[in-house]
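We now fix the convention by which a protein and its fold are recorded. Think of the row as the fold of the chain written in a discrete alphabet. Here is one such record, which you should read through line by line.
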Amino acid sequence: MQFADLQKEMVAALKAGDKARKESISLVIAAIKKVAIDEGHRDDISEELVTQVLLKEIKSTKEQIDTCPASRGDLLEQYRAHLAVIEEYAPKMLSAEEVRTILTEKFADVIASKNKGMIMKTVMAELKGKADGKVISSVVAELCK
């Protein structure tokens, strides 16, 4: 997703009066701007950077949901709504079956070594941002057996 598109979505949510959606998008935009400034490209924010921050926000929001006490239902709902908005803009992650297919087709020679560390190093370069690291790790462990 392009950064400009995300900003347009925030303006649209603001005009529609959808306060929760606007706040969620605004938080993501702020996080993207912070990372862009930290990395030294304030003006030219790449699509890769946007994707990276979106995935990081999804991960941290899921952790917030997991650690939130059940007695705080209002907070849980807020986190879930935030997560739903972020997931709309994040790229679709590959499933375990899709990861297994890619690994067996493209990385058959590396998998033959049964060296999980070497496999993960090689595979993560290709699949970073396309699949969850936990899914990749479990598929690699299964293929190394």
